[in-house]
Each structure stands twice: as C-alpha cells, then as structure tokens.
Automatic annotation (TrEMBL):
Enzyme kind, highest EC tier: oxidoreductase
Protein known as: Formate dehydrogenase subunit alpha
Highest rank taxon of the organism: Bacteria
All residue ranges annotated as the 4Fe-4S Mo/W bis-MGD-type domain in the record: 6-61
Species name: Benzoatithermus flavus
Family indicated by similarity: In the C-terminal section; belongs to the prokaryotic molybdopterin-containing oxidoreductase family.
From-to range in the entire protein, with total length: 219 to 919 of 926
C-alpha cells in the first residue's frame, strides 16, 4: 500500500525530554510513518508530535546551501523585513569554502583584536551529546573563554542550582516511571499532558491503580485534573508560601522522618525555625489555598510510604525559581522520600537533549559533568586531555550575553540551533543585540528568526539525518540513528563545528560522532561503562552505570549518601520573594507563558510540520470566560496585549484553565511573539528569567 516502507531505522524522538524510542519507516528516502518502539521511557507509546511531527525535515524552507549576508543588507528589524521563503533580499548563496572561511575569519579577528571574552556561543539542546561537547570545547579552547550557554538557562537553570546546592547533582534521582511505585505523586508547575505527554500516561496509569495524584498549578489543566485526588490552583508566583505552609505542618505535627533527617541531612534546625511563622492559616490568603487543604496534603505526603515530586517550568521560571526548588528538595528530604523505588525528585526536562547538552558542558560556570571551571583538579585534567590552557573564570549566561552585546563587550557570536530572537525574554531587546553584533554565525536547519540577523548561515542536519546520542530526563543515554540523506549541501553539525574549529586554529581530526563520544568518556566519569558500541547494540543505557554488562541505575542515592562535600543533603530555607513586576493600574493583568501540545518551543520545527500546524495554526491568548464577558468580548475576537516591553495582537481564546485576571500565551508564534512581552528579570542563583509572571494590559481591537 501507499504506507509500505522499504526500510526501517530505530532512533529516538527529537522533541521532548521524555525520550521515546521510535522506528522510522522509510520509503524512497522519505519518512513514510513513525511507530513507537519498546524503549525504557515509552514502552511503545508516542504522542502526537513523535508520531506525526516529522515532515518539517522535508519542508521546502530547509536550508540547503550556505548563505552570506549581502553587502549593506540592513540587520535592524530583520524578523519583520525578511521573508524566510524569499531571503534573497538580504542573503546570497555561497560555497562551503567561502562561507566557512568568512565565518571563521570574523570570529578570529574579534578574538585577536578585542580579546577572548569578546566572543560567545549558544549551543543547542536539540543537537546530540557529541555536538554539544564539541561546541563547548570549541568555545573554551578556540574562543578561549567560558562564554557558552544554551536554553537550559531559560528552563531548569534554577532547579539545577538548587539541586547542586542541596544534593550535589543536577539530574533526577529517579525515572518518571517510578510514579507507578509511588503512593503519592506531586506534580507542581508542570503540564505534562501537553509538554511530556508520554510521561503523563504513567502518572495517569499510577492514579488509576490507586496512587494519590496531587497537582499544584495556577492553571487548571484539563489533562491531569481528572486524575488528581487534590488540585491546588494556587495564586501565580506564591509557590514558596504554599510549600512552606505544607512543610510547617509536617514539622509541627512531627510527621517528618527523624532518622533520615538526622543521618542524611544538614540544616534541619534552621529550616524548622524558619518554617515556624508559615502556618497554613497565615499562608492561605497569600497562596489562595484553604489551610485545611494544605494540612491534608502535608499529611498525605509525609505519611506515604513512597512519594515522588515532579516539577516543570512553572517552578523554575521565576525570580524565586531557585527558592521554589529548594522548598521541593527540603520537602522530599525531610520525609526521607528519596533513594527507594517510588520516591524521588524529578525536574521534568523539556528538550530531547537538555540533560545531555548540560552534562556535556554547554554551561558557562561548569565544564562537562558539572565540574566548576574554578576546580583546579578537574581543569588540569581537562587541560591535559585537550592540550591547552583553560579560562578559570565562569562565562556569561544567555541573558547576560545579550546585555554584554548591548554594552559593547561581546562583538561576535556563533549560535548553533538556538533561537534567542524568539525564546529570550524581552525579545525586542534580544533582537536589537543580535543586530548590533559585528559578526554572527548561525548554524541551523531553517532560516530562523535568529538566523535572519546572521552574517553567515550554515545549513545543518535535522535529527533523522545523523547519528548521535541524546540523554533524556531519566538519565537514559540513547542512540539516534541516521535514516535520511541530507538535503542539498546541508552538512552534519559535528562536521561544521570541526571545520570552524580548524579555521580558527584548532588541530581537530575527529572522524565522526563515535570518535567524539570516545573522547567524552575520558572527560566525563558519568559515562563510565557506556560506550558507543554498547549504545548501538542496546539503544539505551542509564547513567550512572556500575559495569559494562549491567543496566544503569534508575533510582540513585539508595545509601543516603549524596555527592556534596559532607555527603549530606543540605536543607535551605526559602523566604517569600514576590515576582519582579506586579500588576498595577496601567498593566492590571498577570501574564504567563508556555507551550502547546502541538508546537515545540519557538515553533521552528512544528510550524513547518503540516499536520501539527493545521491543528494549532494561529497565535492566541487564553482568557477566562468571565473576563471576556466583562470586556464585552467573545471567543475568537482579536485583542492587543501589551507590557512595559512591547505589544502584540492576537486572537482571544476562551479557556477557564486560567483564573480571572490571568492571561496565558504560548511562545511559539512569531507573528505574535509572547517573548516580546516577557520580563527579563533574573533569578539571582540560576540566572533564569521570569517567563511565568509579568504585568500586562489587554485591549479589544
Ligand atoms: Fe516525542 Fe516527547 Fe511525545 Fe515522546 S512524549 S513522542 S519524546 S514529544
């Protein structure tokens, strides 16, 4: 029949951090269809993106030749001035030789003239581990500084800051499938039926089997609400008040695990004293949850034999994101809910390889495996492995790099597979910075909004066109295999990075991703007993892995010993820090942003996937029906939403998942980019911006 395939290739879904294993069914070098495979994270299940989201690969808008900006073509307002289907107003085609020479020369000249800190790079959580590793190595050894970051900064940087401080590692303590073994599961600030759909199926399955599911979210999610025993729709930005009140009850009623606290934690007494004033009665008016409910949930969680906590961007994307995560760590630790089946802390990772890209070192303050750039021992090891001196000073983060461009300190950038013109807070400010750069090299599969500001655009590989490993939210390192030829003159990302590296003076001779992975195992103890050959054979191995013939360890810290300086988990009290911008007379609404089921992040892939775009074709803002009525609006009317940073126009969608006074806008629509509106204020520890809360105005059009 028309769906018959002439070959199949086993790989991993390119979208979310769940890491579903898939099989491509290929006919005439096209993906005819995709089926779910029996991977450890998905057991044959797939969501709509993994099943139907692949035609972006053959989009007519794919970049197939290197592009060079035409002499004198203006960079300002590139996003509105350039039509991605007809970029010839601003760009011309070039050979690889010319494009690579120009790309590298611009970077080299800035480095030699203005110093190594005048350059920066953004890598990508959508590329493989090998590509992430090569990219950060290029920045650290070729540019000469640690100015390398990626979208983890915009997603779980605060969670990682809290986890590193609390338990000495940024990764999850147990895979999400352990929800099936838990008596109680808390899901807070995450909307997994939309953003981690296959993980959500495990939460639903657990709930059906009797696990108590407690969902905490300022939005009433349609997906998990039906399965929840308790739904705490707290006021936006009041996480710490609510969580401290729950912990207050656990401490005051003596429900915590005394033995665990004594044997394995530090700081309980300070935390206990700190929590004294956070009574449920005092916190009820702050967070909007009845004191009785807070008490009930506290008792449920503490008395459970096994309980787990999952969280997402609703926790992390605040100026108090690190404090929110600190509360979750303290909550789990004081109850001893870690290190056993059905227990643990699990920040749900967003992108398919955000865990792996972070592990591989796309972070400005740490080398691969989270060793501080200030750690002289690891740095010396890396210097001998890489054969060069390394900068002991932490580099700048995503938002800091944008500010440093405005300040004239950073003059050149290399961006691989990221789209800050859409994903950064206060996007107009970010776009102005991209336009100000003296030299910008962008490597991507589409002429993204960011590539529109580039001097040189390098056409790269889509996930089904290359071999490489990725690491999912469960710490499972998985093998992705090449199924399709590259279109036109596009090249694998690892090859492009190496060509740039050679042209700025690095003696690189990698023969392919397997070669790079072999070097990574030398730099990264976390990959012990995991080899390329093994991944080719087994498709997935979890780290840490104790032996070459053993599966990796899903649940960690079984002995209660943490990789902190004294081996104990640190409990850190958190105070209430209000959101950086409060609604007022001019901007009376609360605006929050996020994703949709059909569109992935900035929409670069999914808006070019025909079936997904047909399902969700138009920019929208969700508004409560009472608010719509009050304003004399009806569903589908066009409205204007503005903040102190910008204004967009889009369709109002009636949706009572948002409470009155709150607006929600997905950030994937370029024609009404939510991030033109968002607040770039940063969490002081994780340096993550406050995407989840700012003051806005809504007007009928
Ligand atoms: Fe892909 Fe995530 Fe959907 Fe699985 S749940 S198919 S990994 S998008």
């Amino acid at each position: 029949g028309s769906r018959a395939a002439d070959r199949t290739v086993d790989s991993v879904c390119p979208y979310c951090g769940v890491g579903c294993q898939i099989t491509y069914h290929v006919r005439n070098d096209e993906i005819a269809f995709v089926s779910g495979r029996n991977g450890p994270a998905n057991e044959n299940r797939l969501c709509v993106k993994g099943r139907f989201g692949f035609d972006y690969v053959r989009s007519p808008q794919r970049l197939t030749r290197p592009l060079i900006r035409k002499e004198g073509a203006p960079k300002t307002d590139a996003v509105t001035a350039i039509d991605p289907r007809n970029p010839w107003t601003h760009f011309r085609e070039a050979t690889w030789e010319e494009a690579l020479d120009l790309a590298a020369r611009g970077l080299r000249e800035i480095r030699d003239r203005d110093g190594r800190r005048a350059l920066a790079g953004f890598g990508s959580a959508k590329c493989s581990n090998e590509e992430a590793y090569l990219f950060q190595k290029l920045v650290r050894t070729g540019f000469g500084s640690n100015n390398v970051d990626h979208c983890t900064r915009l997603c779980h940087a605060s969670s990682v800051a809290a986890l590193m401080e609390g338990i000495g590692t940024g990764a999850v303590t147990a895979p999400f499938n352990e929800a099936l073994n838990a008596d109680v599961v808390i899901v807070i600030g995450a909307n997994p039926t939309v953003n981690h759909p296959v993980a959500a199926t495990y939460f639903k399955q657990a709930a059906k089997r009797g696990t108590k599911l407690v969902v905490m979210d300022p939005r009433k999610q349609n997906g998990l609400a039906r399965y929840a025993s308790h739904y705490l729709q707290f006021k936006p930005g009041t996480d710490v008040a609510m969580l401290n009140a729950i912990m207050h009850v656990i401490v005051a009623e003596g429900l915590y695990d005394t033995q665990y606290v004594q044997a394995h934690t530090d700081g309980f007494e300070q935390l206990e004293a700190h929590l004294a004033s956070f009574t449920p009665e005092a916190m009820e008016p702050v967070c909007g949850i009845p004191a009785a409910t807070l008490r009930e949930v506290a008792r449920l969680f503490a008395r459970a034999e096994r309980a787990m906590v999952f969280w997402g961007m609703g926790v992390s994307q605040h100026v108090h994101g690190t404090d929110n995560a600190r509360c979750l760590i303290s909550l789990v630790m004081m109850c001893g809910h870690v290190g056993r089946p059905g227990t643990g802390l699990h920040p749900l990772r967003g992108q398919n390889n955000v865990q792996g890209a972070s592990d591989a070192g796309l972070i400005p303050m740490v080398f691969p495996d989270y060793h501080s750039v200030k750690d002289p021992n690891y740095r010396a090891m890396l210097e001998s492995l890489w054969g060069t001196q390394l900068d002991p000073e932490p580099g700048l983060t995503v938002v800091e790099i944008i500010d440093a461009i405005h300040a004239g300190k950073i003059k050149g950038m290399y961006i691989m597979g990221e789209n800050p013109a859409m994903s950064d807070p206060d996007a107009s400010h970010a776009r102005e910075a991209l336009a100000e750069l003296e030299h910008l090299v962008v490597q991507d599969i589409f002429l993204t909004e960011t590539a529109m500001y580039a001097d040189v655009v390098l056409p790269a590989s889509a996930w089904p066109e290359k071999d490489g490993t990725v690491t999912n939210t469960n710490r499972q390192v998985q093998m992705g295999r090449k199924a399709l030829p590259l279109p036109g003159d596009a090249r694998p990302d690892w090859w492009i990075i190496q060509e740039i590296a050679r042209r700025i003076g690095l003696p690189w001779h990698y023969t392919g991703p397997a070669d790079v992975f072999a070097e990574m195992t030398l730099a990264m103890p976390s990959l012990a007993n995991i080899t390329w050959e093994r991944l080719m054979r087994e498709s997935a191995v979890t780290y840490p892995c104790p032996a070459p013939d053993q599966p990796g360890q899903g649940v960690v810290f079984t002995d209660g010993v943490f990789p902190t300086p004294d081996g104990r988990a640190k409990l850190v009290p958190a105070d209430i820090v209000p959101p950086a911008e409060q609604p007022d007379a001019d901007f009376p609404w609360i605006l929050t942003t996020g994703r949709t089921l059909e569109h992935w992040h900035t929409g670069a892939m999914t808006r070019r996937a025909a079936s997904l775009d047909a399902l969700e074709p138009e920019a929208f803002v969700t508004v409560n029906s009472k608010d719509l009525r009050r304003l004399g609006l009806k569903a589908g009317d066009r409205v204007r939403v503005s903040t102190r940073r910008g204004v967009i126009e889009l369709m109002a969608r009636q949706d009572n998942s948002v409470p009155e006074g709150v607006l929600f806008i997905p950030f994937c629509f370029v024609e009404a980019a939510a991030n033109v509106l968002t607040n770039p204020q940063l969490d002081p520890y994780g340096k993550i911006p406050e995407f989840k809360f700012c003051a806005a105005r809504l007007e009928p059009l």
